[in-house]
Q: What sequence folds into this?
């Protein structure tokens, strides 16, 4: 199992990536939240030699296939073949109201976006003729001045973030990897995600070994009761935040907790963030997160996710010493 870490801000990306590589991590992901997800990888690539570098995620529908193809091509060169283009759809309000971009049929649009990106890369690899015509994207012009030529390190791998069956099938059909959402459970993964993934893979004549499955695993840990309680509060609030989103309701419904989504959504509209966290009881917390003392975290992660995923990262929405994770990394890589 590969173990990944988080990259963080541009200013510290180089030193963070260097530390992750020295600690034995296999990859480093950046998230598109309040900052650009691509810029940190410019410095991270310079500071490392083997660490894989990926966006987890970049908002796909806030950009065009051409801009994504260009940026990924440049980072693939900068990293000497270590860049992973991780894409996510986000949800409609963010795309239309924050990015002022169109929204429709997210799974179909994502599938076409990835095919368009690959068509652009194929154009640069070959004779420069570009003729991609889809329902959402059309790319038919590529003059020599705008053609960077073949990437000497091959095409970047493309990862797709997915929760529901439709987007999961798209990942299986056209992506090199799938980024599971942190708001998932082992049961949902086994009973809903993996069958949908298998459907997509079969459609493309591929097998499970052709795709890497990655998960950011929620973890509650601490060296004493106070630290455990503080980390549990952080995870409860994050689970509640995700649970308030209607698009993620099926995960709660899978466990018979569909009504919880409505309660969380109602409180979110009131801005009652602390109260939302209080609705995540111990049963829900234990289902979404591994709860263990530091020395037992790796064993618990392997028991829950071993054999199901290929890559794992630590989702810990609370302050913790980075050294806490060093023995966990070593144990996972040896487990």
A:
């Amino acid at each position: 199992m590969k173990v990944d870490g988080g990259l963080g801000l541009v200013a510290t990306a180089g030193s963070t990536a260097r530390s992750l590589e020295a600690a034995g991590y296999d990859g480093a992901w950046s998230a598109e939240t309040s900052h650009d997800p691509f810029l940190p990888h410019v410095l991270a690539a310079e500071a490392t030699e083997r660490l894989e570098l990926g966006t987890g995620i970049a908002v796909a529908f806030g950009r065009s296939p051409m801009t994504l193809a260009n940026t990924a091509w440049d980072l693939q060169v900068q990293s000497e073949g270590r860049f992973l283009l991780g894409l996510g759809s986000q949800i409609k309000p963010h795309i239309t109201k924050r990015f002022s971009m169109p929204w429709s049929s997210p799974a179909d649009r994502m599938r076409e976006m990835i095919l368009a990106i690959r068509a652009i890369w194929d154009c640069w690899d070959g004779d420069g003729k570009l003729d991609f015509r889809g329902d959402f994207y059309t790319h038919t012009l590529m003059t020599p001045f705008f053609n960077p030529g073949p990437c000497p390190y091959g095409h970047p791998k493309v990862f797709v973030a997915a929760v529901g069956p439709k987007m999961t099938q798209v990942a299986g059909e056209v992506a090199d990897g799938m980024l599971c959402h942190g708001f998932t459970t082992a049961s949902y993964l086994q009973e809903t995600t993996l069958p949908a993934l298998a459907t997509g893979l079969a459609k493309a004549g591929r097998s499970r070994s052709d795709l890497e499955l990655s998960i950011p695993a929620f973890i509650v840990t601490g060296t004493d009761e106070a630290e455990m309680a503080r980390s549990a509060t952080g995870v409860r609030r994050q689970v509640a935040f995700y649970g308030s989103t209607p698009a993620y309701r099926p995960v709660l419904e899978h466990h018979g907790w569909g009504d919880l989504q409505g309660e969380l959504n109602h409180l979110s509209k009131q801005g009652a963030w602390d109260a939302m966290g209080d609705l995540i009881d111990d049963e829900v917390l234990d289902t979404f997160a591994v709860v263990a003392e530091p020395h037992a975290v790796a064993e618990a992660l392997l028991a829950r996710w071993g054999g199901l995923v290929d890559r794992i990262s630590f989702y810990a929405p609370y302050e913790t010493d980075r050294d806490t994770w060093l023995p966990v990394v070593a144990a996972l890589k040896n487990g």
